[in-house]
Design brief:
seven-stranded mixed sheet; 9 strands; alpha/beta; single chain; binds 6-phosphogluconic acid; Rossmann fold; Single alpha-helices involved in coiled-coils or other helix-helix interfaces; EC 1.1.1.44; gluconate utilization; 19 helices
Length: 472
């Protein structure tokens, strides 16, 4: 038994991550119940990697305390693998779940395994296939003692930003998977914003694909620099050999989802913490899948407005850049706020600056702006909301007029920009000392005696809203 690291699940992510670990000099063992995948791993012919089709032989090949990471689809499969592992691992061994597990599952598994004397680390891994191979961003949480044992490996295989690895211990129990879930919620929001900017350029400004490519390329050279804009720029240049036009134009417009965005919104609502830009991004993927209904409706409600904006393309795209900045800041701010609240509720012991720090490289939402988020929470670890940071606010204020222009022009021309709009309406309420929700309180009390509170007097009140008291 000489192997230092074991991986269960030899799909692309598992195999790539294992190769990354082996590249750093660790002897690795891989296990999968598919013989084909085990053969593919052995065919790599790496002196540091050994593939196994037998679980016992796999775990027997590991040094103690044994480190076993799972990269298998979230859900029941994780529980099944853990059950099998219980028969072959010993007290003190370490199990890492590197998949996109729901944080409540991780919470349960952590407590169960702790009771059995096994260390459990729920770890978010971001960066896709390429990230796994060359350097992901990793969000481990759970057992601090176990983290110390796996830290040297993780720090070596992570992406590096300014010489520092994009991995750190996130916090207690399910903290790692909660942080990864919020990462994905932000990922959904930014992807939705990019797709809305595409719609404005394509239908509103009637720009050609190569012009849109140039705009994204330019944005990606400035403060919007990010992985998601980088790949979008590539997508606007990609043609399949022998095919006319961009591959993009041949792709169906029904967006799929594996659920992590939805979980973010569900988790946020459970905590009464508003994340509307993320919520609407989840809903728009779902709406996109109602293709049949959309086709029917498009016949009843054809475009009633002239979609062409008739604007100077260059000037307008500069405004669009500002509006994008505005909405992107809002998406990150809402995600960070959710982390702030979850930290209180679940006693995770999260450090928001550390989260921003490890998101700066390796992961899907890595971006220039994460430097500002990091700086804000680093300067003030008690900061409740990113929009209250003076530097962030100073930049955001400049972009407000453009956000209003983009959202209102789109509405007038019948172009849908729900995420931009949600960012703006969230902002307009967030910055407002008073909201019209006193009326909602009055209505609730009227029809259901739900009581209300008064501005000038402590306590909870109920009124009989009978007609005699109402002046007609
Ligand atoms: C990452 C990604 C990844 C996620 C995909 C697909 O950080 O590497 O978030 O974990 O699984 O982005 O997500 P959807 O299928 O839900 O779009």
């Amino acid at each position: 038994n000489q192997n230092s690291f074991g991986m269960i699940g030899l799909g692309t992510m598992g195999s790539n991550l294992l190769q990354n670990i082996a590249d750093h000099g660790y002897s690795c063992a891989g296990y999968d119940n598919s013989a084909e995948k085990v053969n593919a791993l052995n065919a790599l012919d790496s002196e540091n990697i050994q593939g196994f089709s037998n679980l016992k032989e796999f775990t027997d090949s590991l040094k103690s305390p044994k480190i076993v990471m799972m990269l298998v689809p979230a859900g029941e499969i994780v529980d099944n693998v853990i059950d099998e592992l219980l028969a072959v691992l010993d007290k003190g061994d370490i199990i890492i779940d590197g998949g996109n597990s729901h944080y409540t599952d991780t919470e349960r598994r952590y407590l169960e395994l702790e009771g059995k004397g096994l260390h459990f680390v729920g770890m978010g891994v971001s960066g896709g296939e390429e990230g796994a191979r060359r350097g992901p961003s990793m969000m481990p949480g759970g057992d601090k003692e176990a983290y110390e044992a796996i830290k040297p490996v993780l720090e070596k295989i992570a992406a590096q930003v300014n010489g520092e690895p994009t991995v750190a211990f996130m916090g207690n129990r399910s903290a790692g998977h909660f942080v990864k879930m919020v990462h994905n919620g932000i990922e959904y929001a930014i992807m939705q914003l990019i797709s809305e900017s595409y719609e404005i350029m394509k239908r509103g400004l009637q720009m050609e694909n190569d012009q849109i490519h140039e705009v994204y390329k330019k944005w990606n050279q400035g403060r919007l620099k990010s992985y998601l804009l980088e790949i979008t720029t590539d997508i606007f240049a990609f043609k399949n050999e022998g095919e006319e036009g961009l591959l993009l134009d041949n792709i169906r417009d029904e967006a799929k989802a594996k659920g992590t965005g939805k979980w973010t919104s569900q988790g946020a609502m459970d905590l009464h913490l508003p994340t509307p830009v993320i919520d609407i991004s989840v809903s728009m993927r779902d709406l996109s899948s109602l293709k049949n209904l959309r086709v029917q409706a498009s016949k009843i409600y054809p475009d009633l407005t002239e979609m062409h904006y008739g604007k100077n393309v260059n000037d307008y795209c500069d405004q669009l850049e500002e509006a994008f900045y505005f909405a992107m800041v809002s998406a990150y701010a809402q995600g960070m706020h959710l982390l702030y609240q979850a930290n209180i509720e679940f006693k995770y012991d999260l450090k928001l600056d550390l989260i921003a720090k490890i998101w700066r490289g390796g992961c899907i939402i890595r971006s220039e702006f994460l430097e500002d988020i990091y700086a804000a929470f680093n300067k003030d670890p008690e900061l409740q909301h990113l929009l209250l940071d003076k530097t962030v606010a100073g930049n955001l204020i400049q972009s407000i007029p453009s956000a209003r222009t983009i959202v209102s022009d789109a509405a007038i021309h019948g172009i849908s920009t729900p995420a931009f709009s949600a960012a703006l309406t969230y902002f307009d309420n967030f910055r407002s000392e008073s909201m019209p929700t006193n009326l909602i309180q009055a209505q609730r009390d009227y029809f259901g005696s739900h009581t209300y509170e008064l501005k000038a007097k402590e306590g909870v009140f109920h009124t009989k809203w009978i007609m005699e008291n109402i002046k007609q």
